Amino acid sequence: MLRYFFMLGVMLLSFPALAENKAEVLETGTVEVVGTTPLPGLGTAINEVPSNVQAVSGKAIAEQRSLDISEFIDTNLGSVSSSNTVANPYQADVSFRGFTASPLLGTPQGLSVFMDGVRVNEPFGDIVNWDLIPSNAISSISLIPGSNPLFGLNTLGGALSVNTKSGAVNPGVGATLYGGSWGRKAFEFEAGGEIKDKNIDYFVAGNLFEEDGWRDHSSSFVNQLFAKVGWQDDNSDLDLSLMLANSDMEGTQALPLSMMNNRSQAYSWPDSVGNNLAMINLKGSHFLNDEMLVAADTYYRKNRITGFNSNLVGDIATPIQAHNIATETDQDGFGGALQFSLLRDVMGHKNQFTVGASADLGRTDFSSNTYDAVVVGNQTVTINPVNILASVRLKADNDYYGVYATDNFSITDKLNLTLSGRYNKAEVKLQDQIGVALNGDHNFERFNPAIGLNFNPTKSLGLYGGYNEGMRAPTPVELTCADPAAPCSLPNSFVSDPALKMVVARTWEGGARGKLAQDLNWNIGLYHTELSDDILFQSTGSATGYFSNVGKTQRQGFEMGLNGKISGFSFAANYGFVDATFQTDFVALAASNSSAGFDCNGNAAVDTICVHKGNKIPGIPQHTLKLRVGYEITPNWSVGSNVVMAAGQYARGDENNQDANGKVPGYAVIHLDTHYRINDNWQLFAKVNNVFDKDYATFGVLGDNAFSTGVFDPDSNNWTNEQFRSPAAPRAAWVGVTYEFGKPKGGSKGGDD
Q1: What distance in Å separates the CA atoms of residue 723 and residue 654, rounded to the nearest whole number?
Q2: Is the pLDDT of residue 181 over 60?
Q3: 713-720 long-range contacts, Cβ below 8 Å, gap at least 24?
Q4: How many angstroms separate the CA atoms of 389 and 434, rounded?
Q5: DSSP secondary-structure letter at 649?
Q6: Residues 21, 749, 178, 572: what is their CA dihedral angle, to the nearest 10 degrees?
Q7: pLDDT at residue 537 greater than cutoff 90
Q8: For the chain, how big is the Rg over CA atoms in Å?
Q9: How many CB atoms lie within 10 A of CB 168?
């Protein structure tokens, strides 16, 4: 397959040079056309997509000075919330409609993330490392909701599609230097251009970031480099990109409520993770004629992740107080896709048919060593580095294959029918390198269909409705940590466990969108997603747990949005209601839940709770509201504000919603930003987060406080069981300066909001 795609690239380069290519549309940053298949191509007009797609340009990310994708979509997009469980700005859990994309092992993933057609969910646990995606290389992002089968595995609640800039659309050079609170220092640069007589364009972007962090032991060092060279003519488009990144990020754990008087302290330390990524991607497309487009890509992705975790395992008065766990995860991901589109009328009706196939292969070497440790202050110090308490050596092979097709048929010039389907096959092979306990060979396969209708009676009104199905195969992490009797200290210690079933999602969605005026847009929608054999991480304490199938779960709700421009004002409002519930009774191990002690028959059962149909799924706020207002005081001076609101949520470990500590409270927080352009080359900016310095938390988990200062638990006759919360960052401010030259006035050619 790799040889085939290399030959395809050579063939595309051999075509004669002519002019611009319309298949480059997704690199321009426009948000009126979105990619609805894994491979970027011609895209689909939003009014022909049977779901509430949210699309934004890279220009909007730059204007708000968002650190990464996760921060931007949390503060702007509807039905999105985030929780920062480890107090590191690059390691947020992002939830959309109750489905998560997270960089942390132990969080069941429900969103797929693509960058220029490449699936960037890591092979070992389907996690998403936000620190590896440079925000200043992004031309546009699209959040496509539902269980869209075209995007393959992990698309239970939605797919996030990221497209990068090209030099032809983003010419010129820019450099930004900024700093401020918590010792943050950052330097960003980008450069783009084209050699017109050769039809070659080039783009490069880089970031250097350093921060001490607002909590003790939460520093970040992140370096990113993205480079792309492209060639195109009237018929062909070829892009070769390279992405390099290395990061070293410390994170600190949630705090028990009894320690929240000092929100910046670390519960225990050290905890750290480092990523070292190299990724190369070759993608191309060629019009065989005016009606036929063939597209392909091939990629290789290597990421080495090192981690160190401090886990308190008992009261600090005991001889063995903690475990230190060192891990190393070497992941090689490679594969490609081939796609064919036919733009030909059928029976006199406009029709676009696409068929494709993809392969995503992962090879992982995982190792961990566990050491006994004592606690000195809040630091866990290894007692004897030579004495290894437990070791894991595991090889994991993930082979994901898919064949898909979609057809967009215009029944009339106002009514469109979309039919889609994808056959997925996932093979997960586990090989224990120091025994046989972890060996396993797992296979999952399914055909997932979709159907949708769009009715656009006028240019200012559109209606849509549809049904789709998706699936997720259990990851190697989940397959090796699924025994309630032997919970894991993720992401570290694995044991031989029962097999898990794949998760299947079924989504209904309907809504309307339109324009109240030329620059005033609105949308409203309803959705209902049911998951069969959902996989849940059941917490057995603040640092341990296990994965299990828990029957059916459900996410349903509605969304409303309004955005526009009036004179010098721009504004956007997005409200989301998410009702996420369990739909099957089951018994969960939850030793730190104050109501623990009974099974679902009312019988006494140590450390268990009964979760009933209708109980809320922890970690998901039921209401979210995002407001964005901008105002141009003068042609050179603008100000903007984001208001982010989220309702309360139940803590992990409180799946029965009965723990005495109740919910983690909701919050409302305000951010401000301002930009002043001195001249065509120089620009000053400033940003203030959490303007009113509000104390709030974005995550909760039930656990045992090893420092024994918690609330008295009469069942265990001790003071250890508490609700832990991850406090959010206090007020912070940063100022910076940007220098640009060679850029068109008003920015790049593309990048519409």
Answers
A1: 10
A2: yes
A3: 713/594, 715/594, 715/596, 715/597, 720/315
A4: 14
A5: B
A6: -110
A7: no
A8: 25
A9: 26
**Residue 739: which residues within 8 A CB-CB, separation 6 or more?**
174, 175, 176, 681, 682, 683
Exposed, middle or buried by CB within 10 Å (0-12, 13-18, 19+), for 68?
Answer: buried
340 burial (CB, 10 Å; 0-12 / 13-18 / 19+) is: middle
Closest CA to 545 of 585, 593, 502: 593
pLDDT at 395: 94
- Identify the residue with better confidence: 488 or 344: 344
**How far apart (Å, rounded) are the C-alpha atoms in residues 479 and 721?**
29
Q: Is the dihedral of CA 265, 621, 249, 213 positive or negative?
A: negative
Q: 99-145: per-residue pLDDT in tens?
A: 999 998 778 899 999 999 999 999 998 999 999 999 999 999 999 99
* Cβ contact 163:35 at 8 Å: yes
Q: What is the 3-state secondary structure (H, E, C) of 487-519?
A: CECCCCCCCCCCCCCCEEEEEEEEEEEEEEECC
On whether the CB atoms of residues 174 and 743 are closer than 8 A, the answer is: yes
Residue type, 505: A
Q: CA 371 → CA 323, 324, 390, 610, distances in Å?
A: 5, 5, 7, 35
Q: Which two tokens stand for residue 35?
A: 């990619």
Task: Give the global pTM.
Answer: 0.92
CA distances from 412 to 346, 408, 415, 418 (A): 12, 12, 5, 13
Q: Which amino acid is at 606?
A: V
Domain boundaries, the chain: 2-741
Please tell me the total number of residues recorded for the chain in this structure: 753
Which residue, chain included where needed, has tokens 């006199």? 348
Any idea what the Cα angle at residue 339 is, between residues 70 and 529, rounded to 5°?
45
Beta bridge partners of 277: 245, 303
Give residue-wise pLDDT tens across range 577-597: 999 999 999 998 888 898 998
Read off the tokens for 581.
Answer: 């519930």
Burial of 277 (0-12, 13-18, 19+ CB in 10 A): buried
In the beta sheet, which residues pair with residue 572? 563, 628
Q: What is the CATH number of domain 2-741?
A: 2.40.170.20
pLDDT(486) > 70? no
pLDDT of 268 > 50? The answer is yes
Check residue 638 and give left, alpha or beta (phi > 0: left; psi -120 to 50: alpha): beta
> E strands, 181-235, where?
184-195, 200-211, 220-232
Could you identify the residue written with the tokens 């922890």? 618
- Beta-carbon neighbour count of residue 599 at 10 Å? 12
Residues contacting residue 24 through CB under 8 Å, at least 6 positions apart: 166, 168, 169, 232, 237
Structural tokens at position 569: 């004002």
How many whole angstroms separate alpha carbon 482 and alpha carbon 497? 5
Contact (Cβ atoms closer than 8 angstroms) between residue 140 and residue 56: yes
Residues whose CB is less than 8 angstroms from the CB of residue 289 and which lie 6 or more positions away in sequence, other chains included = none
Report H helices in 570-715.
none
**Element (DSSP H or E) covering residue 72:** helix 69-76
Question: In this structure, are residues 735 and 181 in contact, taking their beta carbons and an 8 Å threshold?
Answer: no
HSE (CB half, 13 Å, CA atoms) of 575?
Answer: 9
CA distance 670 to 723: 26
3-state secondary structure of 73: helix
Is the predicted pLDDT of residue 710 greater than 70, yes or no?
Answer: no
- Sign of the C-alpha dihedral, residues 724, 726, 728, 729? positive
